[in-house]
Design the sequence.
């Protein structure tokens, strides 16, 4: 009876298997690249005005809420209106070329567009105000913005990342007066966190309910 | 190998209706028996077989063999895979240029304003998200609303954002501008300035706006020979009652003070002006636990919402209602048993005697109302009876008329009583040079005998102000886009005279102007600011800015209700009373044709509103069509079935219409609904139904007594939801009489095998801080369906179209089921709103392969759209059939107007996803966050669902059932409480309170 498999078959089979493996890995990598957020973690995007949180927060010491004024009241932290910028910049650095778009927009009444960094899927209903009220610091999600010359996203914003805190809020909670602080660290976060969960009346049974974030 | 052809739909028709079989089945049945459609009543077995082939219906356009099917599926998967390959788009943030310091971005704001229906005000609070109006709620401070609204106010949001609205001025078919119109008017008015307005006519709808009335008065002052006409196609055109001196008056009813009510063809629960308030007042008197149960008698030719709430209902042809009123008058006067009953059947006489005794026995706390379609003589008889019964001053009050009326109404001139008819006569005589139509569509809705479109050809200049470029706008020399009520300043009076200011929620989307702004332009020649005009009008009442702002914020101008003028007894006959004789001296042998505004799209104003088109009409549960309602007796006589097309012939005019057999219809009355058969309504309304105005005449707008029906042998496909989610003989609605209730308060749940705590193998869900639950009082539900539309607006529920409704794919999260009980000729009815039951042991959760429907810790059965893969197992396993599946991409994601309209707090679902009632989880979460931020518990009443908020009768209560003091817990403690299908052990969180009727013991054997 003749051989079913030729002598080269073993080599060809291994070659084929290797090729299949390479193709599968390539497809997975390609798919991940295509599906990823346009701006990745730590990617600073080019903005029409190169606004520096490092300068305004770190060096000037402006409170987060001066610009993100609705963070304690609304789901949306608020993007400052151009008139907020102009409270200082009608006097300061008015001749700087980097501020030209701001001044032009303010005078024409047509605002320029910021490139958005933090965007959750449409079926997620995130609310800034409740997080701030329950002691989640700005820094916990947005990182050391006081050290960022150009804003970049530091968190993956995946559901797994959200659940890390929703399952164990004690790992991250801060006292109320430290919510807007940068670089603050508790001496014993877990002990403090557990105390705060009780003090803030956080119903941990509820934090992982689908209905808390999805509607 | 399987054969797909076995899955192909069969051609099915419903079995012919057999009245005798229905009667026989009812005779044999023991105990109360509920039914939803006549087919079901007549032939249970045949109907079941028909139902099984009819639903669930498979796609009709997939005649595929196996190989084709596999190819199709493969291609679909490949395409689906390809389109999924994209990353989320890079988005942008646009800052405000100038800060909005007083409010936070992302927080909705509410503004009080006024919507009108048939000219009468309904106070509303409108939610605004970043300047976009998205949802309408009732204004608790407004007397016509008290926090609730009707379906039309809810649907006004969709009307505002309707992409088919008129978007520009048109001059003789060309685009134009307001400046060009102003110039054209300036040329016209030089002539009218010289000839005192000769040939100038204005046509309006019924109108209560003090500002517009003052403008029209000034207009008539300036142009004394100009005339103002009023035409309201779906309501009483001009004030119906007059006092002893002939001045028009308005009647104001206090249903909350009445113990015995008689409605003579009066659907007061859906009255355009006061229906919402009347519903609340009426249901206030229907609380068996409080010991207050009024009794409602209804005599009507065609079933109405009011009639279906009645304890005793008598179907009677419209023309014979006068005779009935006369017989009742005699009984009340003579206090004798046999007065005037000579020609009357004994049963009818007994009914009348019992009614008369009951009315007299109420001792001044009775009330008789007559409907707008009844002849002035009937109204006069009703006024007289109310006086005789001592009701005037308690349950009914008379006051000055609330509508603004043209001068001719008070002092009619030759050939001119201010009506559309007078206008048409003048037009044909060539006396009209310029006709200004302020928000109206007479070309479509004028009675056929006026031949309005033909008469228009003799009018050189037609100026039309309208929301749509409709049938009239298309013929107009100038069509002017009108701003929506949510875009303009204005004012209006409520049914009791209370005035309220309307403030815009958004600048006009398409550069429209309001009637007030247009009148300013016509009077003064320049563009005025609507706010300034309205403010000037109210400057004597609202003296400073504080008073003005307070009135705006409250949504009512304080103390503007018109005082009652009880001294003025109404005068008997009305000036226009041609049908007095026909009311009493009728020809009973013929059929009568009744015209009624459509229950969901009115007189045609709402034709292009998808929400209202798709809302199953109360009683018939038909969507997207109008029909001719005929009685079961007449249907049996002509061997007709629902959906058969007949030719209606009246006054030498003909019209083809599909019929619908209406249980409870008076035997010889045929009802047609106005508002359909539009040709220029827009993409939604065009070509739906037939135009009943084509049979209407101006001298008798509500009925014709020479009707003939001729079967054509054709059939017309109607979409009704009445068969959907069928009862299958289960005990879903429970009713009892007051006597039964007093005897055994727990009658509704007495025969349940389990008292809602059936033993279960499944563990209890962990208890959270709150336990959300709902209680629906069937005794209070009048079946107006405002809840369905409010839910649709709140939860971004799409419109699916007639074809999809026909396939049983309507998307409403809360449906209102309608059950009949008793005889097909005169059944009693029960309405049952059905949202998600939020079962504690939910069958849907167990069968989901991907955990897309799960419980949360507060007892909500949640649907996670982003997990759902569309197996539909949950829907199959739901015993209440409350789950809705997106078979197609129903949500319109292309039209920018709809994007702006949607509630930003609720996901827009896509194709292939299951959805259902969430108990308005977005409202729960919003309230939760507000309370949690303040570190306090949620207060009872802090979470109000959309259906609960809109309900005119407060039939729906919602809250924390773990708190024994919450309103919903108290409702559930009622002995009338029962759970739907409790024996399944699902432990529904939504429960019902049984319906209680209060029949007159003297009429024990009758309905």
Sequence:
């Amino acid at each position: 009876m003749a051989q079913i498999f030729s002598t080269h078959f073993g080599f060809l089979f291994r070659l084929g298997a290797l090729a299949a493996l390479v193709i599968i890995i390539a497809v997975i990598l390609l798919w991940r690249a295509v599906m990823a957020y346009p701006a990745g973690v730590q990617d600073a995007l080019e903005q029409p005005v190169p606004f520096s949180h490092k300068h305004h927060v770190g060096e000037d010491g402006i409170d987060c809420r001066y610009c993100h004024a609705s963070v304690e009241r609304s789901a949306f932290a608020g993007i400052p209106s151009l008139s907020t910028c102009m409270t200082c910049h009608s006097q300061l650095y008015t001749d700087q070329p980097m501020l030209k778009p701001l001044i032009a927009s303010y005078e024409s009444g047509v605002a320029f567009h910021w490139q958005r960094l933090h965007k959750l899927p449409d079926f997620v209903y995130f609310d800034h105000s409740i997080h701030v009220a329950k002691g989640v610091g700005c820094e916990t999600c947005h990182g050391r913005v006081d050290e960022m010359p150009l804003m970049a996203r530091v968190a993956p914003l995946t559901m797994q990342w959200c659940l890390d805190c929703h399952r164990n809020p004690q790992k991250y909670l801060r006292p109320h007066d430290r919510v807007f602080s940068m670089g603050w660290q508790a001496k014993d976060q877990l002990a403090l966190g557990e105390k705060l969960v009780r003090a803030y009346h956080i119903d941990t049974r509820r934090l992982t309910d689908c209905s808390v974030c999805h509607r | 190998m399987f054969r797909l052809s076995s899955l192909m739909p069969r051609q099915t028709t419903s079995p012919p209706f057999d009245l005798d079989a229905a009667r026989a089945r009812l005779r044999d049945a023991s105990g109360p028996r509920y039914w939803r459609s006549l087919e079901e009543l007549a032939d249970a077995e045949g109907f079941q077989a028909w139902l099984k082939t009819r639903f669930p219906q498979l796609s009709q356009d997939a005649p595929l063999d196996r190989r084709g099917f596999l190819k199709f599926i493969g291609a679909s998967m490949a395409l689906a895979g390809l389109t999924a390959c994209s990353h989320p788009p890079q988005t942008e943030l646009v800052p405000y240029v100038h800060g909005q310091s007083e409010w936070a971005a992302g927080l909705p704001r509410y503004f009080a304003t006024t919507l009108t229906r048939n000219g009468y005000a309904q106070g509303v609070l409108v939610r605004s998200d970043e300047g976009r109006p998205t949802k309408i709620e009732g204004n608790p401070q407004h007397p016509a609303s008290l926090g609730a609204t009707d379906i039309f106010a809810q649907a006004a949001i969709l009307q505002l954002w309707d992409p088919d609205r008129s978007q520009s001025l048109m001059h003789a078919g060309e685009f134009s501008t307001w400046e060009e119109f102003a110039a054209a008017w300036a040329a016209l008015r030089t002539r009218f300035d010289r000839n005192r307005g000769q040939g100038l006519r204005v046509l309006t709808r019924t109108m209560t706006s003090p500002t517009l009335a003052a403008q029209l008065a000034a207009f008539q002052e300036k142009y004394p020979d100009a005339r103002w006409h009023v035409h309201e196609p779906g309501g009483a055109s001009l004030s119906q009652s007059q006092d002893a001196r002939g001045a028009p008056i308005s009647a104001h009813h206090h249903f909350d003070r009445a113990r015995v009510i008689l409605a003579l063809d009066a659907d007061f629960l859906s009255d355009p002006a006061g229906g919402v308030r009347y519903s609340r007042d009426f249901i206030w008197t229907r609380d068996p636990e409080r010991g207050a149960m009024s009794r409602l008698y209804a005599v009507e030719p065609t079933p109405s919402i009011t009639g279906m709430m009645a304890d005793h209902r008598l179907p009677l042809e419209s023309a014979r209602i006068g005779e009935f009123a006369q017989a009742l008058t005699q009984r009340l006067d003579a206090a004798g048993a046999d007065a005037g009953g000579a020609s009357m059947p004994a049963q009818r006489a007994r009914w009348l005697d019992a009614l008369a005794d009951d009315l007299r026995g109420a001792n001044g706390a009775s009330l008789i109302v007559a409907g707008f379609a009844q002849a002035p003589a009937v109204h006069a008889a009703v006024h007289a009876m109310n006086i005789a019964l001592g009701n005037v001053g308690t349950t009914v009050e008379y006051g000055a008329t609330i509508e603004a009326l043209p001068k001719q109404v008070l002092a009619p001139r030759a050939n001119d009583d201010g009506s559309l008819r007078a206008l048409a006569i003048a037009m044909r005589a060539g006396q009209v040079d310029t006709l200004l139509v302020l928000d109206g569509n007479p070309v479509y809705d004028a009675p056929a005998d006026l031949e309005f479109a033909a008469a228009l050809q003799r009018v050189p200049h037609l100026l039309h102000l309208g929301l749509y470029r409709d049938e009239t706008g298309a013929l107009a020399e100038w069509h002017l886009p009108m701003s929506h009520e949510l875009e303009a300043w204005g004012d209006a009076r409520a049914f009791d005279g209370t005035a309220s200011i309307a403030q815009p929620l958004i600048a006009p989307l398409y550069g429209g102007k309001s009637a007030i702004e247009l009148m300013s332009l016509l009077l003064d020649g320049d563009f005025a600011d609507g706010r300034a005009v309205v403010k000037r009008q109210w400057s004597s009442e609202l003296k400073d800015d504080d008073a003005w702002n307070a009135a705006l914020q409250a949504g009512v101008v304080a103390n503007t209700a018109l005082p009652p003028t009880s001294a003025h007894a109404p005068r008997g006959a009305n000036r226009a009373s041609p049908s007095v004789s026909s009311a009493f001296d009728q020809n009973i042998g013929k059929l009568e044709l009744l015209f009624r505004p459509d229950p969901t799209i009115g007189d045609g104003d709402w034709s292009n509103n998808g929400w209202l088109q798709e809302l199953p009409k109360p009683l018939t549960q038909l969507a997207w069509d109008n029909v001719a309602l005929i009685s079961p007796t007449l249907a049996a006589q002509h061997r007709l079935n629902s959906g058969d097309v007949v030719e209606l012939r009246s006054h030498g005019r003909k019209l083809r219409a599909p019929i619908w057999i209406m249980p409870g219809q008076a035997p010889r009355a045929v009802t047609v609904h106005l508002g359909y058969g539009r040709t220029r309504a827009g993409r939604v309304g065009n070509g739906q139904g037939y135009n009943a105005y084509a049979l209407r005449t101006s001298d008798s707008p509500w009925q014709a007594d020479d009707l003939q029906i001729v079967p054509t042998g054709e059939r017309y496909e109607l979409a009704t939801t009445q068969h959907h989610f069928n009862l299958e003989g289960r005990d879903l609605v429970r009713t009892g009489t007051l006597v039964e209730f007093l005897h055994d308060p727990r009658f509704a749940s007495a025969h349940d095998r389990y008292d809602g705590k059936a033993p279960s193998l499944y563990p209890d869900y962990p208890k959270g801080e709150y336990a959300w639950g709902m209680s629906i009082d069937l005794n209070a539900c009048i079946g107006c369906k405002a809840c369905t539309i409010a839910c649709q607006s709140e939860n971004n529920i799409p419109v699916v179209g007639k074809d999809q409704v026909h396939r049983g794919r309507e998307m409403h999260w809360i449906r209102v089921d309608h059950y009949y009980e008793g005889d097909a000729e005169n059944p009693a009815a029960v309405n049952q709103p059905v949202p998600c039951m939020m079962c504690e042991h939910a069958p849907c959760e167990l069968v989901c392969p991907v955990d897309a429907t799960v419980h949360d810790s507060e007892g909500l059965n949640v649907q996670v759209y982003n997990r759902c893969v569309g197996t539909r197992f949950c829907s199959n396993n739901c015993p209440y059939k409350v789950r809705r599946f997106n078979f197609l991409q129903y949500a319109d994601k292309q039209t920018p107007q709809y994007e702006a309209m949607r509630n930003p707090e609720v996901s827009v679902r896509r194709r292939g996803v299951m959805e259902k009632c969430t108990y308005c989880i977005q409202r729960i979460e919003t309230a939760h966050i507000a309370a949690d931020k303040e570190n306090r518990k949620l207060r009872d009443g802090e979470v109000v669902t959309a259906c609960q908020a809109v309900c005119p009768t407060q039939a729906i209560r919602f809250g924390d059932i773990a708190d024994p003091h919450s309103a919903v817990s108290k409702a559930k403690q009622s002995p009338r409480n029962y759970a739907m299908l409790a024996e399944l052990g699902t432990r529904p969180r939504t429960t019902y309170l049984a319906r209680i009727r209060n029949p007159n013991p003297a009429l024990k054997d009758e309905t």
About this structure: The beta strands of chain A are 114-115.
